[in-house]
Design brief:
- By secondary structure, the protein is mainly α.
- About 75% of the residues lie in helices and about 0% in strands.
- A two-stranded antiparallel ribbon has the order 1-2.
- A hairpin with a 2-residue loop joins strand 1 and strand 2.
């Protein structure tokens, strides 16, 4: 056990783990940006220079949108944690950005859960895991709702190939899971790693309704911000497309990309593949879409994770588990 080791040895292991997380995150970022087979970095830079996307005015506006995107994510996390204890905006910022860095190389952002939980003492950690899940579910719910609207529009107006048989199977699986969940909820003896469904229900009911509503509102605001950012990039690349038509494709893209399991670092590849196909239906070329996807990833994932690496390095388990 780690806690049975001498203090100096434990300190050494903690430093090693933190360095491994940061070095691993930077390595994957470098690999994706510098060794992207779909879009070579030199071609990417040349394309941006040609389209004058690098102007100070454009980049400043795009960075401001990214700041607002993460501002509302941090506020959302602060409000969620408020249901069990109050934390400052700066504490919420540290936890959000450090967990982003830690999750960068883990499948489906699993690392985010453990990274946020470790900031709290043991008696809070199960509830922190649940709150983080709730925040992610709220974001997914917004993605599904708006994505279904966009997908419906795409199916009606474009020759969008949809495997309805596969979709029906997925729906049936979700329905089966929902039925089993409802059945499990009614069984008080049903447990998840020692945490009974009854306790989950109790914890859910104890979260104030205004926090549940604000979580959905902040998730919706975030979605509108990064969707607007995507549309602005389309306009910066001189793509003549209406906002409504662009949003139908953007919402469909995020819907399809979000339901495909992937390691978070390869999220940019998944979105790129889906986006290239969808935007080809409205006549937008591949290099433009791949460039936009990469810019979005750099602005909303890479830059915040670089800041988060500072908090990972400076994390001290003995000073970051408030009672």
């Amino acid at each position: 056990m780690l806690y049975a080791l001498p203090y100096k040895t434990k300190q050494f292991f903690f430093v090693l783990i933190k360095l491994s997380i940061v070095v691993g995150a930077f390595y994957f970022i470098y690999t994706k940006v510098a060794e992207n087979k779909d879009l070579e970095f030199s071609v990417f830079i040349g394309f941006l220079t040609k389209n004058k996307v690098f102007s100070l005015k454009n980049m400043l506006f795009l960075v401001i949108l990214s700041i607002f995107n993460w501002f509302f994510e941090i506020i959302k996390w602060q409000q969620l944690v408020k249901s069990i204890r109050s934390i400052s905006f700066f504490e919420a910022l540290k936890q959000s950005l450090a967990s982003l860095t830690a999750s960068l190389i883990t499948p489906n952002r699993i690392g985010e859960y453990g990274a946020k939980a470790i900031y709290f003492s043991k008696n809070y950690r199960k509830r922190i895991l649940f709150l983080n899940l709730l925040g992610n579910i709220s974001q997914m719910l917004i993605t599904l709702l708006l994505g279904c609207v966009g997908l419906s529009y795409m199916i009606v107006n474009y020759n969008l190939e949809v495997d309805f048989f596969r979709i029906s199977r997925i729906v049936l699986i979700f329905m089966l899971v929902a039925v089993l969940t409802v059945f499990g909820v009614k069984q008080n003896k049903f447990k998840i790693r020692g945490f009974t469904i009854e306790r989950v229900k109790e914890f859910w009911l104890n979260i104030p309704n205004n926090i549940k509503v604000s979580t959905l509102v902040f998730s919706c605001i975030r979605y509108l911000i990064f969707s607007l950012q995507f549309y602005i990039l389309l306009r910066l690349f001189a793509i003549d497309v209406t906002y409504f038509r662009a949003m139908s494709v953007i919402t469909t893209m995020y819907l399809l990309a979000s339901i495909i399991p992937s390691i978070f670092i390869f999220d940019v590849i998944v979105k790129g593949s889906v986006a290239v196909y969808l935007f080809s239906l409205v006549g937008i070329n591949e290099i433009t879409i791949l460039s936009i996807i990469l810019i979005m990833w750099i602005l909303n994932t890479v830059l915040p994770s670089i800041i988060g690496s500072y908090f990972v390095i400076n994390f001290n388990v003995y000073n970051n588990s408030p009672e």
